[in-house]
Design goal:
With 447 residues, the chain is mainly β. It is built from six helices and 29 strands. A six-stranded mixed sheet has the order 1-7-6-9-10-4, with no helix packed on it. Strands 20-19-22-27-24-25 form a six-stranded mixed sheet. A five-stranded mixed sheet has the order 21-29-28-23-26. The longest helix has 6 residues.
């Protein structure tokens, strides 16, 4: 039986049930309209029903989708999330007018998973009830209690900062790793939490590194509440089976051989893909070229991505899921390096004067470009999408330099530089609005 909708938990508003005055304006007919609705793919079948005004409506919802969970909210009532083959009812005691419904799983409504109740006969009462639209929102998130910006000059410490240090490729030629899809609350800015969809409980997911010719065998286990999948750009193979969506409780094995060098994105490829990536299901695979890379003193990895908040939560317990409407409108609240805005303002990358530093950068998007820049630094080596644009295996350029590494979503590369004197060198996306949204940090250089 349908349960009352919690709009905050669902991340969406719902159509309000009829008020007492509205119900009094429509006489109950004593008749019942009953319909079975199938949830499959990204649609309800049928997607609408016509009901005489005053009838009782009973919807028997069944999930016939073998790959993921679905639910329905309608007229202030909501089913639980249903696994494959599970059923639940929504009951509207008196239909007083047209009603809009949808699946509340993140992104499913935007993919077209909606349901309409049309009415026959009578005159439905007027109402100012919420129609189920997302409502107004701003492109940059603010604390709803104070109106203050999320990113302040005196932020609280990040509880679990992500170490950007990158170890060298292991000696193994076969890499066997288990990736577990999990939905867990994580910090996305100092003191700000979101329910993230993850591989192994982190954003970004585990970084894999190997050499050309290495074999990667990934076991994906779905320990979440909806369908998930995985797509490795580092391998070339038909996607039909290894990239398929698996429902909660199932697993698959994804095996590929790395035949080309570079930094490659991986991500959940379940639709809507933008929501799964924005929720955190992404990471990097680094494949060193056959000839190897020149030794450096320090090596770091920064994965840039966006965060779309449906609420501003200051604790793990209050965290809510990604906002699919902001994703569709391309209105990120935060742009982050390694999952947390401005974390490297506090946990600064480290180097010494004259040390050679290599910084790998991957733009995981899903929507924003990156223009990676080190303020006060100049790149003498630039590697972009599998090839050198400056410098190379024979060494850095003597006189030519570069100021940014420009990346489209899913592109990556690395830069190398040496800092000439001690100080704090900001690292930013030179799309300055994104730097102000959190794509910002420092390299602390000491003598």
């Amino acid at each position: 039986v349908g349960v009352g909708l919690d709009p905050v938990a669902a991340g969406l508003s719902a159509a309000a049930p009829p008020t007492q005055d509205q119900a009094q304006g429509v006489g109950a007919t004593g008749e019942t309209t009953r319909i079975e609705v199938s949830a499959e793919g990204m649609s309800f079948t049928p997607s609408s029903v016509s009901v005489p005004i005053g009838n009782r409506l009973v919807i028997d919802l069944v999930n016939n989708d073998p790959s993921t969970t679905h639910d329905m909210v309608l007229g202030g009532e909501k089913t639980p999330r249903l696994g494959h083959g599970e059923r639940a009812e929504i009951v509207i005691d008196v239909v007083t007018g047209p009603i809009e419904g949808w699946c509340t799983v993140v992104g499913h409504r935007q993919m077209g998973m909606t349901f309409t109740v049309a009415t026959e006969g009578g005159t439905p009462p007027s109402a100012d009830a919420e129609s189920g639209s997302h409502g107004e929102h701003q492109g940059a998130a603010q604390d709803p209690a104070t109106g203050a910006p999320l990113l302040t000059e005196d932020p609280p410490p990040v509880i679990q900062p992500v170490d950007a240090s990158l170890p060298p490729a292991p000696d193994a030629t076969v890499h066997r790793v288990t990736f577990t899809a999990q939905e867990v609350p994580l910090e996305v800015a100092p003191g700000v939490w979101q329910k993230r969809w993850t591989f192994n409980g982190t954003v970004p997911g585990p970084t894999l590194r190997g050499k050309v010719g290495d074999v990667f065998e990934i076991t994906l286990v779905n320990d979440g509440t909806l369908g998930h999948s995985i797509d490795f750009h580092a391998g070339a193979l038909a996607p039909d089976e290894p990239m398929r969506t698996i429902p909660p409780g199932e697993s698959l094995v994804y095996r590929y051989t790395a035949t080309r060098s570079g930094i490659w994105m991986y991500h959940c490829s379940t639709m809507p893909m933008s929501s799964h990536i924005a929720a955190g299901m992404t990471g990097a695979v680094i494949i060193d070229p056959e000839e190897g890379l020149a030794p450096v003193d320090r090596e770091y990895l920064l994965v840039q991505s966006e965060v779309y908040l449906s609420s501003v939560a200051d604790s793990a317990e209050e965290a809510t899921e990604v906002d699919p409407v902001k994703i569709a409108d391309e209105e990120p609240d935060l742009v982050v390096f390694n999952g947390i805005a401005n974390q490297y303002d506090e946990q600064r990358l480290e180097a010494k004067v004259g040390e050679r530093v290599r910084i790998w950068v991957l733009d995981s998007g899903p929507n924003r470009m990156s223009s990676f820049h080190v303020v006060g630094g100049q790149f003498d080596t630039v590697y972009h999408e599998g090839g050198y644009r400056l410098g190379g295996p024979d060494g850095p350029s003597d006189t030519a330099g570069s100021q940014v590494l420009g990346l489209l979503p899913a592109q990556g590369g690395f830069v190398e530089l040496e800092m000439p004197e001690a100080g704090n060198y900001p690292i930013v996306s030179h799309l300055m609005l994104d730097a102000e949204r959190g794509a910002h940090g420092f390299i602390k250089v000491v003598e």
